[in-house]
Amino acid sequence: MITKILVRLVAWAVLGYMLLPLVVILGVSVTATSFLAFPPQGWTLDWYAKMLSDPSYVASFATSTVLALVATLVAVLLSVPAALAMARYDFRGKATILAALTSPLVFPHIVLGAALLQFGGYFGLTRSFLALLIGHTIIISPFVLRSVLSMLTPEQRALEEASSDLGGTPWATFFLVVLPQIRPGIVTGSIFAFISSWINVELSIFNTTPDLNTIPVKLFNYVQYTVDPTIAAASGATIIVVVLAVIVLDLCIGLDLLSERK
Known about the structure:
Layout lengths: L1 H27 L17 H7 L2 H34 L5 H9 L6 H12 L8 H23 L2 H12 L4 H30 L15 H9 L5 H24 L10
Helix pairs in contact: 1-10, 2-10, 3-6, 3-8, 6-8, 7-8
């Protein structure tokens, strides 16, 4: 009994420690002062209005959103077939290929960004949306790959074989049997992939320009010269967008599906 209480207290303490910075950011973003202050000295939404009236912030938010969505979509289209191949077939070098595909999880993104900048120079892809898309797809694909692989169990394979024995075509088997089984893995991996793409700084900073900027790089550059509550407002807007996305996901799909196989 005492152990259970201690575990709960530690869990709540860790959760509070993780949420406290978010509370501070949201509080600072509504302060009436022209400097960062917490607790906020007065309440105002002027800093949010200032951020939204700045075209560079709006453009950066749009770039980050489009980039994260497209990169996540491409990662899903590439990772699902790769996961199916890894789960279904045994071939020489399988472990090496899987390690290479998941290596971006542990490989420093700043090194990947520098390499992409150098390599892209030979093809004229430096500092472009395509260069960002390629880089982000590389670093987020392992999230989808690992999540889908965890769904491809022997039981799932048995259902697939049963569908084929009953006359199901490969495409019908995939969409009616395989896809519903791996859907939680796709959704989970896509969420992690989208967030990882959205917050990335190390790789993005090598391939952005003043006219093509993501919001994390925009904030990184802005804070080097100016520190005011606009930074907190931009961060607060990001937090609000993520929370709303989770709420919409729960209403449309149900977060309980992420831990269930149906």
